[in-house]
Task: structure prediction
Amino acid sequence: MATVRIPPVLRAQTGGQTEVEVGGADVGEVLRALTAEHPATEEQLFGPEGDLNRYVNVYLNDEDVRVLDGLETGVKEGDTVIIMPAMAGG
Amino acid sequence: MATQTKQQIEEIEAFEAAQEIEGGDVVLIDTREPHEYQEAHLENGKLVPPGVLADEIAAAAPDKSARTIVYCRSGNRSHKAAEQLEALGYEDVASMAGGIVAWQEQGLPVVAASGMSAEQRDRYSRHTLLPEVGVDGQLKMLNAKVLLIGAGGLGAPTALYLAAAGIGTLGLVDDDVVDASNLQRQVIHNTERIGTPKTQSARLTIEALNPDVNVVEHNLRMTSSNIVELLSEYDVIVDGADNFPTRYLLNDASVRLRKPVVSASILSFDGQISTFVPFEGPCYRCLYPTPPPAELAPSCSANGVLGVMAGTMGLLQANEVLKLVLGIGEPLIGRLLLFEALSTRFTELKVRRDPDCPICGPDAPEVPESELGKFPDYELFCAG
Result:
């Protein structure tokens, strides 16, 4: 199981949960498991082609998955997947 | 004999020395005692007191063929030192006639270590006691020019603490007026100032806190047509903007002008901060290539924000600014720091330079000087 951290802007779609525990062998599977559990998150994370939306940053632990293997980045037991969209509030 | 030697030494006037120093490639030697040097010296002047000249000059001026200008208080000690240097084999030595006294009479600048008044020495004593800051560091702060984008949630605490710290010039960009709903977090404003422009309200608070600070009010909205002029006056920029168009515009302009930006944002119970130093680390677009759509980019006015988030993240910004000004510590370059207030948890994420970044990447187009101020229309480019 991996821990997915939910940013404030997606918490309405996870029933207010800030963290969700889901299984999956890579980042893509973990995020798909999240959208299966909370379908309202899907269109905000993924584009129509199934790619991660460009404005959503996803980190495996402290590293951006864009510099790893993207959605194919392997996830180990106990890893943390952080979803981090840009925020503009000042 | 003495007059004969005196004729052999080249004497130059202070203004001539200033011109040479401006032109570069000059070794500048201050041949006075340490306490005189402490009080005031020329920028880049290397202290080599007369008594230790023979022993210490090699370290201060290793190249004997380099142009070397020697000065003292009034020109006597430097003349003798110049003779000594020529005897030691220095080939191109001049003594500055009239010394630092003549230099200052001409209105030329000095680094005045005790350029601080008695009141300032008292006010900043808890800074100057820190070896990492000292008098020199405090003078750097007093000479620093910092521009704050937004005098709201983040800008309020940042401006207060930078002002208290003695940042000499604080520019404030905001076109809003103080509203009652701001006062739960924007601690630089107060109830009496409701309806007053934020830049003016902030200036009044800062002036009451620290008269050393020169507050420059930019009571306007930053746009693609005024941003280059605005930024070019300042050393460090603090991004506390409340909308994406301004954040992307600021990034693109600051990269072009090579100005460091300390960027933070807050929403509900969460905050994030990073420091973008162009070409040394990633830029805002390396981190966030495109802004989110409007429904994923709520503002504090729509979603709410815990008041202390502004203070927490604003002061982390002030901390970054002081480190950049002082040149100490490790700024948040290439690091994104997240703070979650409910769990009181800090998380640090790595931010890499994006090789495909359209603004700071290796393939980013060169921007000619004439195009520097031209940016796309950011209002249309993304919804705030």
Notes: Confidence is low (pLDDT under 50) at residues 1-6 of chain B.
